[in-house]
Amino acid sequence: MTILDTIVARKWEEIAERKAAVSDSELRAMPLFGRSVNSARASILAAGSTGIISEFKRKSPSKGIINDRVDVAETTRGYVAAGAAVLSVLTDEPFFGGTPADLQAARVANPQTPILRKDFVVDAYQLLEAKAWGADLVLLIASCLTPEQVRSLSAYAHELGMEVLLEVHDADELQRSLCDTVDLVGVNNRNLKTFVTDINTSVQLARLIPDQFVKVTESGLHEASTMVRLHEAGYQAFLIGEAFMKTDDPATALGHLVTDYREQLVTSKTIHQIV
Ligand SMILES: O=P(O)(O)OC[C@@H](O)[C@@H](O)c1c[nH]c2ccccc12
């Protein structure tokens, strides 16, 4: 049994508990449910966007406690001020220390910014929750879903007005799960079964992702030079958590990375023009 199997098994228990406590119609009646969503796709592709999807993550199975001191509203507001194109907020409690309240607090603090509900979505009920808690897009992880589930969950997310980030880790997952109700494709550099992180995963898969999808590289990103390399490989967005959250001031860490990335991009473009 891998950690992913353990997480998904626990997730089904959580879903059963939540369904018993809050009905579909109660979720639909929540104040945020009817709000219009912010497009992550548009934000990432806008001229001058950093493409950074900045994550609020307190702990993880691979790293343990990363940061249990900072406030979600203050941190996410700081992320946006420092250049985040999209926010990612973990809502899984047992393994990542996130809560629905974190997502709602980030929503209220950042009304104009697209926010990803970062969780292990396996059931349509979680999409209703995401909408009710103020999410603009949801993550679907190919390795814990059948291609049919990816299709039906992504179509339902679209019906609810949200966008979909499909996460893959290898060519096989990409080829069998990709469908046109997905908006962004994320390549996770971290193998969720072994926790090994390798940037080459993204480099190798980039050319297999059709251009209609926004290409996102996920996990293990700490250096501007790595971002430049992945940008040149075709990535438009970068999902980054730990590099920011492990510091006492995650938003300032993001600001520094943005400055370095912009400088290095200019240098790299100049070199390409000369060579
Ligand atoms: O903290 P990192 O290494 O920058 O990674 C962020 C993000 O990619 C990672 O948290 C993540 C990617 N896919 C996930 C699925 C579930 C939980 C977490 C994740």
From TrEMBL:
It comes from the Bacteria. This is Indole-3-glycerol phosphate synthase. It catalyses: 1-(2-carboxyphenylamino)-1-deoxy-D-ribulose 5-phosphate + H(+) = (1S,2R)-1-C-(indol-3-yl)glycerol 3-phosphate + CO2 + H2O. Residues 4-254 form the Indole-3-glycerol phosphate synthase domain. HAMAP family: IGPS_B. GO terms for molecular function: indole-3-glycerol-phosphate synthase activity. It comes from Fibrivirga algicola. Its EC number is 4.1.1.48. The keyword Lyase applies. Pathway: Amino-acid biosynthesis; L-tryptophan biosynthesis; L-tryptophan from chorismate: step 4/5.
